[in-house]
Amino acid sequence: MSDTESSTGIIGTRVLGEDFRFTQVANLGWSAGTFDFSESGRMPISGENLWVVPGFVDAHVHLGWTDFSEDDRKRRSPEELQRLISQNLHSTLTAGFTGARDAGGLSKTWIGRANNGELPSPTISGSIDCITAASAQEAGGIERATERVLSNGASWVKLIATDGISSPSSSLNSHFSASQIRSVVNIATQSGCRVMVHAWGGEAITWAIEAGASSIEHGIFLDDDQARAAAESEVTFVPTLCIYRKVYDMITLGSLPSFLHDRVKHIVDVHPRAVRTAMEHGVKIAVGTDFGSVEQHGSNADELLALLDAGLSPKELLQAATTNGAELLDCRCRTSFLLKERMPADAVIFARNPLESATYADPHAIAAVVKTGRVVTV
């Protein structure tokens, strides 16, 4: 594709519809940041061999993290952090993700800059920080910790309810009681915000669903009863599969402690089962990478491939990456999950059919990305 950055439309292309089938359209243009099907725009792109889908959403990512290790991040100079965070935002956008929910680490200032269009970036909503058992105790209780996060400008409250990779154990015991989780959801709701819960399994998932959390993050050991309850309560599942594969690779290469090997290997083996359990019970699945280093950001297609490996069809994958993610982020993210007149002009332009699994393994499958009417070359 040539002159894409100057183009404001495509002629004779295929557009993904609400039924997740492609329809041939004569013109797909964009102006003032929104779609316009009445004309092809200035210097139109020939869409004969192109497929256009709504912009993807990464519903769990750490765009402000430049290194996997917090100690390494702290050693970065302010100038390095500025450059590398900008690179993270741009890499994620060119991977086709025009919307994102930052799960901790990206400041309110960075989110404002991204959403004001100051730099190439997805539209972002974020949790700013995470609430752990330690931070809740330090704040004087879970209620105060929640209020503190909200006062810092978070649009999401992220609750770390079970151990994780960096924990000394892999216990599934909940760090918070059922009543504490309910308090967090109530306070967030009163502020017009919602709650995302990091929970590998156990009672934390059950209590989060019962309390009215909007999403379960990771859910490695999600069981049938929990999946049924999540579907009934319309709780979204964000599994973040491939990050554990990447962590496993880091362990085998010696960049992470070897004592993590067996635990992470077990997670990699059983995690896809949780995705299949969610699918069997009709739980909405959204795409989330949980990426947290410069090397990881931009390789978002790895999560798409992991979801395909877990059993999603290409159609279900597109639903997870577009509709489900956009609905989860709601008005906090301007990413449209419909290619319609006057909707935000956010789209991924594919050079291969996105309804074919092999497309996602092709590093050249994405020809360009459109973000609020601006074409970003890949």
Can you describe this structure?
The chain has 378 residues and is an alpha/beta fold. It folds into 2 domains: 4-54 and 336-377, Urease, subunit C, domain 1, CATH 2.30.40; 56-332, Metal-dependent hydrolases (TIM Barrel, Alpha-Beta Barrel), CATH 3.20.20. It is 36% helix and 20% strand. It contains 12 helices and 16 strands. It has helices at residues 70-74, 78-94, 108-115, 133-139, 142-151, 178-190, 203-211, 224-233, 242-252, 261-280, 301-310, 314-329; strands spanning 9-16, 22-31, 34-36, 45-46, 51-54, 56-61, 97-102, 123-126, 130-131, 156-160, 194-199, 215-218, 236-238, 347-350, 366-371, 374-377. The strands form 3 sheets. Strands 1, 2, 3, 4, 5, 14, 15 and 16 form an 8-stranded mixed sheet that branches. A 5-stranded parallel sheet has the order 9-10-11-12-13. Strand 10, helix 6 (178-190) and strand 11 form a beta-alpha-beta unit. The longest helix is centred in the C-terminal third of the chain and has 20 residues, at 261-280. The protein starts with 8 loop residues before the first strand and ends with a strand. 49% of the residues are buried. Residues 51-376 form the Amidohydrolase-related domain. GO terms for molecular function: hydrolase activity, acting on carbon-nitrogen (but not peptide) bonds. It comes from Scrofimicrobium canadense. This is Amidohydrolase family protein.
